[in-house]
Every structure is written in C-alpha cells, then in structure tokens.
Amino acid sequence: MVVAGTFITVEGPDGAGKTSVLTQLLPQLKQHFNQPVILTREPGGAKISEKIRDVILNPEFTEMDARTEALLYAASRRQHLVEVILPALARDEVVVCDRFVDSSVAYQGGGRQIGEEAVLAMNQFATGGLNPDLTLYLDVPVEVGLARIRQHRQNQFDRLDQETVEFHQRVSAAYQRLLAANPERIIAIDATRELAEVTAECLAVLKAKLPALWQ
C-alpha cells in the first residue's frame, strides 16, 4: 500500500453538523493547503459503494441483521478505498472523508452491541489497516443531535435516524471510548456552537496538527 498523501476524517453522532461544517471547511482547505484536496463520504463515495449505501440506509429494511449491516459497511468501505481513497493518496493528495472506520466501531460495535473490537477487526481486514492521519470529532450531546435531526430533516429519516435514544446514547459512549484510546489522532470539537466558530476551530486544529500542508 503506497500512501503519500494525507488522510483526514470527520466524525460525529447524528445531528453533529458534519455536512454543514464540511461545506464551509472545504473551500478554505483548497485555498490554504499546498496539495490538492478531495472530499468524499461513507457509506458511499464510489459507484458500487453508493449502491450499498442505498441498501444500508433504506428505511424499509428494518429486518436487516446487525452483522449484515456491519458487513455491508465494511464492503462499501473497501470498494471506496480501492477506487477513490488510495489512488488519491498515491497521487499525494489530501483526502477529507465524511466518516470512516470509527463510525462503524461506534454505530455497529457500540450502538448495535455486536462488539467494538470485532467490528474494528473486520474493518482492519477491509482497509488493510489504513488509519486516518487526523480525525476531527464534532461533539454534541445526544439530545442536541436528535433535536437537530427532527428540525432539519422533517420526514426524510433514514433507517438509523429511526433508532431509539438508547441506541444513540450507546453510539455516543462508544465514540468517547475511541477518543480516549486515540488522543493524538482524534480531536474533539465542541459542535454545539455557531457554525462559524466550529469551522474556525477545525481550521485551527488542522493548522496545528498538520502544519506541513499549509502554504
């Protein structure tokens, strides 16, 4: 595996505002970074991976088994990695990805209670052990995130949005364990603040942690 570029991921519970932050952040990264920047997402990011995303998030598939779900995420991730992420890194580009392995560990390992270590091992197989260089974790309390979802998505809920509060609490707790286990890689950002403040702190963290990228 040839990895020359820089791999940045953005994580957070549902309603953390990742999409909004990334919309504000990406133009600034393209302006200030001295390498090309691409934005991608999971699940999805490549043709086959997007098809798998449609299956995973389909609100009609309520009977989906938890391990089936975890395997589908890993399969989508593998295809995305091979088609998009690894080629971009080999070209010495900066890849910014909306979710990666941490999401599976938190949502399937913690939320679905099928085991965080088991889900991590499955995804290490899928990714060949690739880890992000830096992860920005947009941190919001469960009740804040769920309130945002209800306010902004109206009737457009996917399968995970329909889960119980207890499920989302388990996801949040799993993310906190990931933060504690990876303090150098995962940096928590208070995402309860105004969008401009959150974006500014993300930029400050990126500049402090990855100074070689700035021109």
From TrEMBL:
The keyword Ribonucleoprotein does not apply. One of its GO terms (cellular component) is cytosol. Residues 10-200 form the Thymidylate kinase-like domain. It catalyses: dTMP + ATP = dTDP + ADP. Keywords: ATP-binding, Kinase, Nucleotide biosynthesis, Nucleotide-binding, Transferase. One of its GO terms (biological process) is dUDP biosynthetic process. ATP binds at G12, P13, D14, G15, A16, G17, K18, T19. GO terms for molecular function: ATP binding; dTMP kinase activity. SUPFAM superfamilies: P-loop containing nucleoside triphosphate hydrolases. Its EC number is 2.7.4.9. Phosphorylation of dTMP to form dTDP in both de novo and salvage pathways of dTTP synthesis. Belongs to the thymidylate kinase family. PANTHER family: THYMIDYLATE KINASE, UMP-CMP KINASE 2, MITOCHONDRIAL. NCBIfam families: DTMP_kinase (TIGR00041). This is Thymidylate kinase. It comes from Lacticaseibacillus saniviri JCM 17471 = DSM 24301.
